[in-house]
Amino acid sequence: MHIAEGIMSAPVLIGGAALTAAGLARGLRAIDADNLPRVGLMSAALLVASLIHVPIGPSSAHLILNGLAGLLLGWAVFPALLVALLLEAILFQFGGLTTLGVNTAIMACPAIACHLLFGRLIWRRDWTGKAAAFAAGALAVALAGVLLATSLYLSGQGFEKAAILVLAIHGPMMVIEGLICTLCVSFLRTVKPAMLPGAKQQLETERAA
Hints:
The protein has a single domain, classed as Arp2/3 complex 21 kDa subunit ARPC3, CATH 1.10.1760.20. It contains eight helices and two strands; from the N terminus they run ααββαααααα. α1 (10-30) crosses α4 and α1 (10-30) packs across α5 (100-118). Strands 1-2 form a two-stranded antiparallel ribbon. The protein is mainly alpha-helical and 209 residues long. The mean pLDDT is 85. It is 71% helix and 3% strand.
């Protein structure tokens, strides 16, 4: 899900850069010594997940993992995604430097939304927790697809059909990402619950009960 160089209009590029700058400022404040290794690990996972691409007109589709990243990192997902996308642009020519801001915003804004919506629900050990994890993975992809399609549409230049194709192709990816997010969250909740959002408060509550 990378927008290539020379496609986006100037207002879209500026708007995406502004959103990313604001999110980056908030995300950097959220990083401390305790979660820095988690941010680095998730950034590396985002980079690896992006290496298998399916071309879609002026863009491409691949594993995104932004829903999982949003759950685990919160606002720190902005710097994690920015680093991953920067390395992809430099090392593999995926996306580009001028589109770095809008590409980051397209992936990170849905990640933050899913963190706020589902971050507390994934601790539930019944079907609600699994459903929340699946929804986070699937919804993050859906929202990213909508933002990408909107960016293409607003840029004009005959990209309306490409925008519709982007939305269509991400349907199956929603299911795949939802399943991956569910499996990862279930595994972490059992093996490494400290990596999940609100871990300290949740563990204290469970000990008190």
